[in-house]
Design goal:
64% helix; single chain; 0% strand; mainly alpha; 9 helices
């Protein structure tokens, strides 16, 4: 469902297409596999040049290894190193550019703990508007603080996030994540969070 999400369609759809190619270059024994690897890297580079949020792809590749229960080997890590290196380079450049134009100058108004609550609210915001698409906007303002406090819904969102994490951990302790439906829930939750974490202004 998140692949066709109307809130951030361009962010997740590109990751979905490229992450699917991980099946092709997980085994580098044929020239065709190397070709898939090269084409995947080339398309990933194009994606980074058009949308910086694509830096999350290497994490998504590891998530697919988990989902398909692939063993972590030296080869499986080596094929991801070019993607990780390019993500780090583009990520560092993007951070410096944002600092230069003042996009990350939030420290005067919001503390790091404030940004954690804002990030929690953003996650709940996405989930809520996925189910109930009302009052959507291209631009959403940061909250107005009352004294040193954020609006109450931001603290409530953090409590909901903790509850969701507790439910996932509880499901894991029942031993059902590896083969049961909880595995799909964990993968979907991590996939969703991976692709929006860079939008939450924690960094």
């Amino acid at each position: 469902v998140c692949y066709l999400h109307y809130l951030k369609l361009e962010d997740v759809i590109g990751t979905r297409e490229k992450s699917g190619s991980s099946n092709h270059f997980s085994n580098l024994k044929s020239p065709m596999s190397l070709l898939y690897l090269f084409l995947s890297f080339l398309l990933f580079a194009c994606s980074l040049l058009s949308k910086g949020i694509a830096v999350s792809l290497p994490i998504v590749l590891f998530l697919f290894d988990y989902f398909y229960r692939r063993k972590t080997t030296v080869k499986s890590i080596l094929v991801k190193i070019p993607f990780i290196a390019l993500s780090l380079i583009i990520g560092i450049i993007t951070l410096h550019l944002k600092k230069d134009i003042g996009m990350m100058d939030l420290t005067n108004e919001f503390t790091f703990s404030d940004r954690i609550f804002i990030a929690c609210y953003a996650v709940i915001f996405y989930i809520f508007h996925w189910m109930i698409p009302v009052n959507l906007s291209f631009f959403h303002h940061y909250p107005v603080k009352t004294g040193s406090l954020l609006p109450v819904e931001y603290y409530f969102s953090a409590a909901l996030i903790l509850l969701l994490i507790w439910l996932l951990i509880k499901a894991g302790k029942r031993g059902k994540i590896e083969n049961g439906r909880e595995k799909y829930i964990v993968f979907s939750a991590l996939f969703f969070l991976t692709n929006i974490v860079l939008l939450n202004q924690l960094i």
